[in-house]
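FW: tagging you since you asked about this chain on Friday. Here's the raw sequence from the shared folder, copied in full. Didn't touch anything.
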Amino acid sequence: MTGRVRLTAAQAMIRYLAAQKTETGERFLAGCWAIFGHGNVAGIGEALYHARDDFPTWRGHNEQTMAHAAIAYAKQLARDRAMMVTSSIGPGATNMVTAAALAHVNRLPVLFVPGDVFAGRGPDPVLQQIEDFNDGTISANDCFRPVSRYFDRITRPEQLLTALPRAMRVMTDPADCGPVTLAFCQDVQAEAFDWPEAFFAETVWRRRVPQPDPVEVASVAAILRAAKAPVIVAGGGVHYGHATGALRDFAERHGIPVVESQAGKSALPWDHPLNLGPVGVTGAESANKVCAAADVVLGVGTRFQDFTTGSWALFRMPGRRLVSLNVATYDAMKHGAEPLCSDAAAGLAALSAALGDRCFAAPAAALKADWFAKVDPLTDTPAERNALPTDQQVIGAVQRAAGPDTVVMCAAGTMPGELHKLWKAGRPGSYHMEYGYSCMGYEVAGAMGIKMAEPERDVICMVGDGSYMMANSELATAAMMGIGFTVVITDNRGFGCINRLQMGTGGAEFNNLLDSSHHVNASTIDFVSHARSLGAVAVKAAGIAELEAHLAAAKDASVPHVIVIDTDPYPSTPHGGYWWEVAVPEVSPRREVNAARAAYEDKRKEQVTK
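HL: got it, structure written out here
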């Protein structure tokens, strides 16, 4: 008979999770981010304490941002490893819902374990409990249901015998991968059970490599064989599938140009002849011209977000065919695409074999040359010619300071679009952009997560003042833990990106920049002093030259190094880009809005979804 061991449910959970390994022998879950409260401190907290040498616990300052750190960790490691995040019930739990949505959109693994109400219901309603007047089984944690790939509520200890393997299956499955939520009733955490010792045996979770269906390969090969001007759209799945080499080999053998989404950027080096650059709303002219003329669009690991497709107006060649190579059937079937459901590398290999020696004419080299001739001066121009530096000039300074081990990262605001267009990513994993959810506040915590994933890398976080103000407290966590990375705060005194969008849709400047928002006193935020107060090294750069000097000094820092630079909120790269559908009012007393509405209606006529 199998031996038994008596443990609380929380102790059993941590012991099980510590025994789940990768093929390389590491724990799949590197450890746990935790903020304790009455809903998890006695149960989960006690279990984590006893496991702290084998399953480390890190303390964050905000439930959402410590989850962002966990998500960035998983993203940087291409989903090969992940982290657990636990909170108390109530606001601690609901703070994590935004992070769960971010992980869900980006198909990234993270284990959320929020405390929950008493399963026995004796003390109901407990502190922070949300009561549903019509359903006694509902708690605040039900908010996680639509943003979790797997959700379970643990109301009995023995439920973990099935819930934990299901959680691991989801987090390690390439097609279903995403966030898992185990809402853990607080009385059950502390309840003991006689567990089978076999449950805690070390388990290796191998990265599954789903193979393509021969019929789908033949169908897609026939479409490509008949094409005259195909293009490949590289998405995040190229990185998650460890398929950057396979993509390069496929493109080179068949002469097909590659364009990159935000998640796919760095799949090929920026200077590879077949890398035509970023695509879509924030894309390069070189990439968008190729896409507009493509008769076959082969998406590899992309979910075809509207920024990639120009709201489905970019791929407008009459009769063009859409093909989607994706490990997830949901994504492979979008918008009437011909599906090739497979691991990215395996699918490209099979498709290449089916195409044989079929090779297409390489794109004109002048396309890339013309693009860089237009945009390189924007990053090279000395800032002394401006009253304030532009974001493009800041990017140029950071690019010049970057080395082969640099990872540039961002999430929201102006910088994602400018970085997508202008950043020259030299190798896979050197560009980390959370643009699936474009979540303000991801940046600082995300930079910490990246550095934890790859301590040898030089991590540079690009963040605007607006996003920094939303979530900056993990600077203190990183300083406390001795995690060094560089943060460049571009202070344009408000939400400059949305201000430009507001103006671009005919609206008056209103409620975005601080000066155009309701105020009595002008804003006098001192970002340098603030960052220093959290334990970071912080300096103010008076211009681009000082920025470059500070960037050089920030390398190899053992705590976050924050550099603040004032920037102009209005300029953006005037070249490239594409239409993005943002609904404009049909009726307005503003002449500018009416003109924008007319232009909007004209562009909608170009949309092609099938």
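FW: The domain at 214-363 is CATH 3.40.50.1220 (Rossmann fold).
HL: agreed, and The mean pLDDT is 96.
FW: great, closing this out.
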